[in-house]
Amino acid sequence: MPNIKDVAQKAGVSIATVSRVLNNKGHVSNLNKQLVEKAIGELDYQPNSSAQALVRKKSKTIGILVRDMSDPFFGQIIKAIDDIAMSYGYDTLIGNGFHERKLEMDVIDFFLRQQCEYFIIHSQGLTDIDLKNISQKVKNLIIINRNVTRLPHQCVYVDQQKGTYLATKYLLSHGHKHIAYLNSLYKTDTSDERKNGYLRAMKEYDITNCIVKKTEPNHYGGVHAMKALLDEKKVSAVICFNDRMATGVISYLHSHNIKIPKQISVIGFDNINLATQVYPKLTTINYPMQQIAEYATKVLLGIPTNKIDFKLDLVHRDSVYALKH
Length: 325
Fold this sequence. Notes:
- By secondary structure, this protein is of the alpha/beta class.
- It contains twelve helices and eleven strands.
- β3, α7 (about 130-135) and β4 form a beta-alpha-beta unit.
- α5 packs parallel to α12 (about 290-300).
- Keywords: DNA-binding, Transcription, Transcription regulation.
- It comes from Paraphotobacterium marinum.
């Protein structure tokens, strides 16, 4: 495999001249530049991107912090970012923070050590002050799915509360009164906002018997929460923190021969691909995660794009039964 010394020898110039051409830094005559580029082509020389990054103290790499890349929700976000990054010649580096402050900080430190030039952060563990401090170290930073008042121009988010408000109001308008909300076990801005949307709609209908349970925000969390809920309460509908949790609810109800939606209606949140692969197909809140990720990436990289006002909406499928028409 040819190295920079081979290129310099073939071009008849110094190694320093080759280095200046590769890094586009310093003065090089047009003749020498042409000789170096010709030698690179003939030798099929591939510069070491990591070494170049060390020289420049940065790289064309986007560090992406998410909760868990195995979660389909975050998988779709990562894919949307990566598709745009690849099309513009950028690499991506992904880290799981599991919404824990120490783990998220460790991932950020790792990105910095790897000379990541750009950061897209989905954080629920770091404080606003943490994020403000990170923004002072990282010039190119976008925070998604969170509103940090100290960083108004670096946040891309949507009103989470509106989603559960729409879901709850839809059930109430169809005659449901005994509605439970299954929230994430983890106290985050997102879990608080989604719970508050449910409570606000219930209050507007003068219903004080609000049922809120906390569980792991995944399939198994939905299974365990639904079991506990049926042991304690009689409900006609369940709203879930996310679609993965809703699949667990549906699985448990099927295993106990409880008809969906006639006996119990179920609504999810996020509208991941899985929502159309369960039976019955899941009515859910569409979270425009792909559009948010694409927009955030373009803003981060300075790619011209129009300002977008992201909104949540209810996707009507087959998992809700109207108690009144």
